[in-house]
Amino acid sequence: MDDKKYKIAIIGLGYVGLPLAVEFAKNQFDVIGFDINPLRIEQLNSNRDITEEVSLDDLSEVSNKLAYSNVESDLKNSNIYIITVPTPIDKYKQPDLRPIVSATELVGKYLKKSDIVIYESTVYPGCTEEECVPILESVSGLIFNEDFYCGYSPERINPGDKKRRLYDIVKVTSGSTPKVANIIDELYNSIIKAGTYKAPSIKVAEASKVIENTQRDLNISLVNELALIFNRMNIDTLEVLMAAGSKWNFLPFRPGLVGGHCIGVDPYYLTHKAESLGYHPQVILAGRRINDNMSVMIANEVLKLMVKSELKIKQARVLILGITFKENCPDVRNTKVVDVFNELKSFGLDVDIYDPYADRNDVNKYYHIKLLNKITTKYEAIILAVGHKEFELLDLDTLKLTANSIVYDIKGFFPKTKVTKRL
Fold it and tell me: Taking the complete model, does pTM exceed 0.90, yes or no?
């Protein structure tokens, strides 16, 4: 296939899909961005990105080159389909493949001979060829690796990171045949300044993605467990980590809540696959249990501090600063701050959340929580949950109801002298 004739369709215009579509359009490719959400399409056609991953300048630059649509038939002229839909987990912490299955069925309707389907969504090793390819064959009536081809190139977007953009991060690529692997590698090389790494197979590329976040999850679970131990010793965990960090090979992980759509989710894809093969992962699941339980432990620690300060518990006013899953980012998917909120509410406390980044409608829709428009009252307890840069300007003393009011800093965000305790 002549690269000048590539007609690229990006399926899913979230944190991953939109930056990808914009970069391909900036590099003169014929691109259509597809999303099932008509509101998302309307916003993008007005050069507005609520994820804040793509700047207004970049959106304006490609406004005449990049088409957005939620009409399925608009995909019919494409010959390269890149699927970037979410891959969440269900309430039983099992992979929820419905979004990727739905996107695959959609692409299958318009798949033609010689077309290439590339997956970027995080999956377990084998998912592309074992789950997605049969759907493509069934819906299209075409034969894999004869009539159409597949590839996998895991997304590495870091939401909210304005320094490491899509094109600054090395991209892993793979293809279902050596020739297609080269085509896909060259395609991404045309937009990725940092270059690419061509994996020897689709399964290797899938596995490389899922272990990236599993490794980070385990490292965070270690420092979370250390924080729980040091708390019983009345030692400041961050001071310990700073001292240990004076050695060149000490890894700079910090304790905290582990939510979001990557680190808190991806390990379950790997453990699901392992268990289907008769192996029960012990280390990975132990790390997950520690990180999943941190919300309850944090809430209980706040309650203990309030009791020590002789503050009332029932109907006490508590302010949580931040609800997104990470700092300087509007994404609230799988945020563990909600678990802290719910645990405190279960003890009869009156809890408010203030977050200048989060979309109020999304928070109300997904979690039935109404965010504060602004802080207008004083509190017995204040919890810094997310280190948004705007919070640096807060005068904590003006938010305290009494001199005994506590400030609990989950992120080590404020100076130690300004808080009652840090995680």
Answer: yes
